[in-house]
Amino acid sequence: MADFETLSEPLPRRLRDGLERLATVLKADQWSAASAAGLNPTQSLVLSYLAGRGASGMRVKEVAAHLGVTQPTATDSVNALERKGLVRKGADADDARAIAVRVTTAGRAAVKAIGLTAMATDRALATLTHGEQADMLLLVIKLIRSLQIAGALPDQRICATCKYFQPHAHASADKPHHCNFVNAAFGARHLRLDCAEHEPAEPSVQAEAWRRFAPETSTPS
Amino acid sequence: MADFETLSEPLPRRLRDGLERLATVLKADQWSAASAAGLNPTQSLVLSYLAGRGASGMRVKEVAAHLGVTQPTATDSVNALERKGLVRKGADADDARAIAVRVTTAGRAAVKAIGLTAMATDRALATLTHGEQADMLLLVIKLIRSLQIAGALPDQRICATCKYFQPHAHASADKPHHCNFVNAAFGARHLRLDCAEHEPAEPSVQAEAWRRFAPETSTPS
DNA sequence: ACATATAGATAGGAATCCTATTTATCCGTC
DNA sequence: GACGGATAAATAGGATTCCTATCTATATGT
What we know:
- The structure is a homodimer.
- By secondary structure, chain A is mainly alpha-helical.
- Chain A is built from nine helices and five strands; from the N terminus they run αααααββαααβββα.
- A three-stranded antiparallel beta sheet of chain A has the order 3-4-5, with no helix packed on it. In chain A, strands 1-2 form a two-stranded antiparallel ribbon.
- In chain A, helix 3 crosses helix 5 and helix 3 packs across helix 6.
- Chain A is globular, with a radius of gyration of 20 Å.
- Chain A starts with a helix and ends in an 8-residue tail after the last helix.
- The relative contact order of chain A is 0.09.
- The interface between A and B is large, with 79 and 79 residues.
- Chain A binds a DNA duplex through helix 5.
């Protein structure tokens, strides 16, 4: 009898192919949503990134890291947004070399408009059961953390690295975790990926919290 | 006590954000792998798509559908690849309007070189346990199927839509499914996303197979 | 045949994205 | 306090992606 282990690609490779498939839909979604607001996917990503951060603005370098592109490319996109009046470049308070890119009021309106657009990806995710969605969220968080540790992603504002996060602080099966910032219990389905209130914990504290939070996953070597 | 349901974005929305995060890494990975072979992510996607299909070649329209871009864009990329000698445009056997885009020997070599490149995404996926990887594969398959049904993806060569697929044909917990093509039992971790031997089953047969395969997930309306 | 639909190419233009380089500022050290 | 190496961003130059709109040629149905 044939052996599937030798017939097919390794599982991680097939998974990556699957994620690539999802990524093409994601990108097509971004095109339709963004172009309805007069911009394109990259610009919309920059805009929503800036909108989710503080009023002090972000540096071009940080925008580039978030997009996973080089700094000149980020400059291009920021300039395109500036031409459209959706962002403004200001002086950085701490460093005269740096600039602070901030969303304008018009920019925030565009973000909101784009956020309201129904996307094929959302509809597909909605066909999963609540349990499946929660499972998927956890897996995505694990991947994001691995990628952050590997340096493939800049610091992510996820619960796992936050000083306010208390994993398994409660006996409840539904809401075992606790957030010291809002002082509330919550469950896996409420874990955040980019929390505005995130404060990074000390590395050793992060490691310990992760160990208690997700003992199953191995730490990348 | 604060309520997380009202505090945070809906779960599908956060999931989409997470997938977007993974997509940026995926794209950066594609850049480094592809540029080592003298091309860019889009070209490498076209090339590996063609390499995974028959020798009769694919039409420009199909390339466009696979990439999720418009036909003129696909023409651009195919032309770029043709200039580099990695694909060839030939006459289509069935339709004089159409062309058959085929990989050249050099093109296959490039695909192989890119495939061997170690990627950050693969390393991250490898940090998941085998069980987690299998869970993720299943979730990704469910999403791909939803997206295909919704028309957001062209026909995917996944087991779930294949006439050779017999879900839960065996009592084995490890390898409950059966593939009539290779005549072998297999488990969730061996499910394929783009099987070269795939033959689409009748819609009604597909629906019935899916019902037996994954009773939990709801069908998109 | 004739109208309509479809495959692909072409035209035109905005943006993405890279590498390499330049300018200005920061920062630790002598 | 000046000097030299890092760092933030801009600039230059160029290939490609990606769109919409349109054009040509072939297919297809009445």
